[in-house]
Structure formats: C-alpha cells, structure tokens
Amino acid sequence: MLYYNYILYSESHDLYYKGIDENISRRLYEHNSGKTRYSDGKGPWRLVYLKTAVTKSEAPIEEKRLKRLNKRSLESLIISAGNEIEQGNIGFNSEG
Asked: Does the global pTM surpass 0.70?
C-alpha cells in the first residue's frame, strides 16, 4: 500500500495543512466536508503538494520535516515541486 505526504491550502484562511494518508481523494473530501477537527470551518481546502512515500515508515518522517518548515520554505517547496496537481497529472478527484 502506498502512503502519501500531502499539503492542503485554504485560501480563505491563508493556512496550510500537512498530513499523511493512503487515500488522498477520501482525505481531501473529509477536510472539505468538516469531518476533521483541525480543518473544520477553515476551508475550502485544495491540494497543493503530494509526495509518495517509499515506505510506510518514511511518511511520518517526511510529515515531521514538512511541519517544521516556515511558511516561506513551505511555499518554495510547493513551487519547486511543479504544477503536476494543477495540470491534472495526479490521478484522483476531490469527491471521495
């Protein structure tokens, strides 16, 4: 099973959310439908970064690294990762 590190962005609140999951479309749906405590009422959320973890144990290490980044570094990472998400090169939708 693949695990993903992801970053969501809420433009309305200028917030980033970093997490890990194995089903990104379901997780994005949960964030946008108020089913997660932190992100409830802070959306809409959109996926701005996605990285596949090589192993299950790698995902939490990467999540910790992402959570330590300041906003400027986080935004640089998102930009340097390219436009794959916005170009539709990531294979999922946001409806769960």
From this structure: yes
SS3 content of the chain, % helix, strand, coil (to 5): 30, 25, 45
CATH topology of domain 3-81: GIY-YIG endonuclease (3.40.1440)
Bridge partners, 16 (sequence order): 9
For residues 83 and 51, is the Cβ–Cβ distance under 8 A?
no
Strands (E), 11-83: 15-21, 45-53
What is the three-class DSSP state of 67? helix
Token reading at 91: 């294979």
Do residues 5 and 18 touch, judged by C-beta distance below 8 A? yes
What confidence tens digit (pLDDT) does each residue in 32-71 have?
Answer: 998 888 888 898 999 999 999 888 899 999 999 999 999 9
| CB 6, CB 19: distance < 8 Å | yes
